[in-house]
Amino acid sequence: MVDDKFLIEVLQSRLKRARKLLEKYGDSWLVLSVGTNDTNIDYLLGVHAHGFMGALLSRDELHVLVGRLERSFIRHLEENKLISDIHVFYGYGEFEKELKKIIAEYSGKRILANFASFELCFHAASLSYTFVRKLMQMAEDYEIELRPSGRFVYELRQTKTQEELLALEYSVSETMKILDSIISESNTIKPGMTEREIAARIYSEIYKLGEPSFEIIVASGPNTANPHHITSDRKLRTNDIFYIDFGMRYLTMSSDITRFFVVGNIPNEIKQVYEAVVAAQNESIKAIKVGAAFSEPDNTARETFKAYGYDPEKHFIHSLGHALGVDVHDVGPPLSHRVTNKKIPENIAYTVEPALYFEGKYGIRLEDDVVLTKKEVKRLVRSPEEPICL
Ligand SMILES: [Mn+2]
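Above: the input record for the complex with manganese (II) ion. Below: its predicted structure, written as C-alpha cells.
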C-alpha cells in the first residue's frame, strides 16, 4: 500500500498542469458535481461528495465548495495547503449563494465550465441544463465570459502526468493482488457458485482499499459470448468456462482487467481460440508506438486473428482498447481501426482487450493495461499464456 502523501503528489501534478494550460484557454475552470456525476472533481480533489460539490481553479487560487456534513472529505487538501478558499454550505440554497460569491470575484474574467459538446469531449459535458442556465444568468450579472471547457479538459486529461502513470501502476498491481488472492484460496470458486457470488467476493476485497472502477462483470458458460454481460444468478457447472472483467479506482486511477477461467478440463476448441487472443494481444501491444495512428494496434490484432483463421469482422466486435485514467473510460480516442486520422501521443494509459465472440456459444476476451511513455510501452500486467484452470 502507498501512503496518502503520494495521492497529494498526484493531485499537485494535476493542479500544476491545469494551471499551465489555463494560460492558453481562460482565467479559471469551474467544476460542479452532484455525487459522482462530474469526475473532474475526483481529478482535482481526489474525492467526491454524496451531494453537491464544486471547485474553481485559477492560476493562483483553488476555491472548494463543500457540504457541511462532508467537510472532512477535503482535510487532506487543507493540510497540504492546496486550497485557497473553502466555502461550506448546507442545502442547495446555500450552495448557490456561495457559488455566486465565487463567481462575483471573477467579474470581467473568462470562466471555463463543463458544458462541452459530446463530440469534442464527453468528460467535459456533465453540467445539467439547470446548472448551465444558472451559470448563464450569473455570467450576465457579473460580466463573466462563460466558455465550454471541452478543448481544455481534453488536452488536460488525454495525456497523463508521471505521477498519474505511477499511480495507475500501483492501482493495477493492487488489483491483481486481489484477483490472485481469490484464485489461490482453495475451493473459493467451484461448481455451484453463482456469477453474483464470485463478483461479491471481489467487491469485498476492492472496498478494503479503493472502490470498483465499474460494475464487475462475471460471465459464465454461453454468457461469455456477451461482451457486456449483466452478472447473473447462473451457477458454475463442472467443466464450465467464465470470465471476470473488473477494476479498482485506487489513488484516483482506474484499472481494468479481464481474465478467462476454466473450471475442470479445457476443451481443445477453447484452447485454440485462447491462443489466438493471446497472440493478438502480444502483437497489438508491439504496435502501440508514439506517432503511430490510433488504428494501427487494432489493425494488427485483426490481422493476427485472420492469420489464426478467425474473421475479425464477425467475431471481434469492439475496438482493441480505451484510455484509462480517473475514469475507466477516460479521455482520448479508442484504439480502433476507425481512428486513422489521429496519432498516438506519449504519456497515455490504455487497455488492450482483443476478443473473439461466438454468438450463443462462448467468447474469450483478455484485457491488460499498458502505459506508453516516450521511451517504451510498458505492460502493467500480462495475461497468462493459457486459460486459468480452477
Ligand atoms: Mn475495458
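Notes for the reader.
The chain has a mean pLDDT of 96.
Residues 256, 322, 351, 353, 367 surround manganese (II) ion (CB under 6 Å).
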